[in-house]
Amino acid sequence: MKALKCVVCILIAASLLFSILHYYVLSKKSIHFSIDDTINVFYDLTENVEKYDSIFDNELLSSLNKLHEKYGLAVTLYCFNENDVFSLADMTAKFKEQFSANSDWLKFGFHAQNPDVDLSLTDFDSFSNSYNQFVSQVTRFAGGTNQIDIFVRLSCFQASGDIVSNLRELGISGLYTSDDYRENYCLNELQNRFLQVYDYEYSAGNSLFYIHTDYRIEEDSFNTFLLLSNKVLEVFTHEWAMNNMGNWQEVDRICEFARQHKYEWCFAQTAMYKTIFKGKVNHV
Question: Measured between alpha carbons, how far is 46 from 92 in angstroms, rounded to an integer?
Fold first, then answer.
């Protein structure tokens, strides 16, 4: 009987801890923006290395900087290591100091080796080689590891079990999951449903955080009610989509929404998030 009472007490305490933690998360309204499939920005900077005096001579980075100055935007560029015409290994290091100086609001994250790779069929050794290449190149041309976002959105929200089980070895703390109802990485149906409702979870099995992506700029229609239902907002788009002026207007509208409703721009790896998640509660 005493053992049963102890179990009941533990369950009640765990329930209370979850409630407190969840309330704390919901009391902190935060927002983060990210751009997937990024590589052309590096090609442009390199091709125009003699012409450009600043990273903000690039149209994409200039527009992001204007949003940062106006709203405090914090953004991560999720990058390919290479595509058919360019590789990060060829990226100029001319702007290293400027990238470093702006690392408080502009970071880089790993997306995939290239647009064609299927991470659901990739083993950890191959993934590790690609990720370490990415870290090495960003460190070279952007000034250090402080520019690297350790919460990543992998291409197509997919990764093999071998990859997911070992991400912590690479210093990766979390994964951004999809904005729709597709399968995410190796999460089961219950975990996917949980993310749709609660926006985040922690998995004790692989020591990773999962954060739900809430809004896709190029496809979703602006819905204040749905956005307000999320206190941890993750908004994203793709590099190719930002050639459309209408998508920039949508980003500006999201930024204005965030300002009006007092969302704080930040990265998941910041001290604020570390405080929120420091209990590492396994919610499911």
Answer: 5
Residue 21 located in a structural domain: no
Residue 194: HSE in the Cβ half-sphere, 13 Å Cα cutoff: 16
DSSP 240-254: GGGGSHHHHHHHHHH
pLDDT of residue 188: 84
For the cut 80, the answer to whether the pLDDT of residue 62 exceeds it is yes
Average pLDDT over residues 14-41: 68
Which CATH number covers residue 212? 3.20.20.370
Structurally, the chain folds into a number of domains equal to 1
pLDDT of 22 over the 70 cut: no
Give whole-number Cα distances, 37 to 63, 109, 241, 280, in Å. Answer: 17, 10, 10, 30
**Residue 282: DSSP 8-state:** B
Which tops the pLDDT comparison, 197 or 143? 143
